């Protein structure tokens, strides 16, 4: 089960984003994969659809339906938040940071980096011990 504090925090986020429980369509589907007899007998997979935005979420991470309901709502709220806040959302910032890291370096930046490496290797050569003849 999900604790009362976590439930309360989730409700606060829903209120902040203006998401009402009536706007969420919820279905339960039988899960697939590992989990044994519990997964095969009980519909633990949770499918949520936010009607105003059309965002859909499917969650079957946990073996219990209650935890999957909580996790699915968290994921749905993150999606809605990133759509509402756009560039300001944490998820959007994380994606943008990864994009910047993967971007190809400019020629000048590459030359600067290589020069710094050369200087560092020269320093290391000067530190080498002197061999006797």
Fold and architecture overview:
There is one protein chain. The chain starts with a helix and ends in a 6-residue tail after the last helix. A hairpin with a 5-residue loop joins β2 (45-50) and β3 (56-59). It has 2 domains: 4-87, Double Stranded RNA Binding Domain (2-Layer Sandwich), CATH 3.30.160.20; 100-127. The chain has helices spanning 4-17, 37-41, 65-85, 90-102, 107-127; strands spanning 24-29, 45-50, 56-59. With 133 residues, it is an alpha+beta fold. The model has no long low-confidence stretch (mean pLDDT 87).
Element layout with pairings:
Elements: H1 4-17, E1 24-29, H2 37-41, E2 45-50, E3 56-59, H3 65-85, H4 90-102, H5 107-127
Antiparallel strand pairs: 1-2, 2-3
Helix pairs in contact: 1-3
Characteristic terms for this protein:
Double Stranded RNA Binding Domain, elongated, single chain, 5 helices
Short description:
56% of the residues lie in helices and 12% in strands. With 133 residues, it is α+β, with helices and mostly antiparallel strands. It folds into two domains: 84 residues, Double Stranded RNA Binding Domain (2-Layer Sandwich), CATH 3.30.160.20; 28 residues.
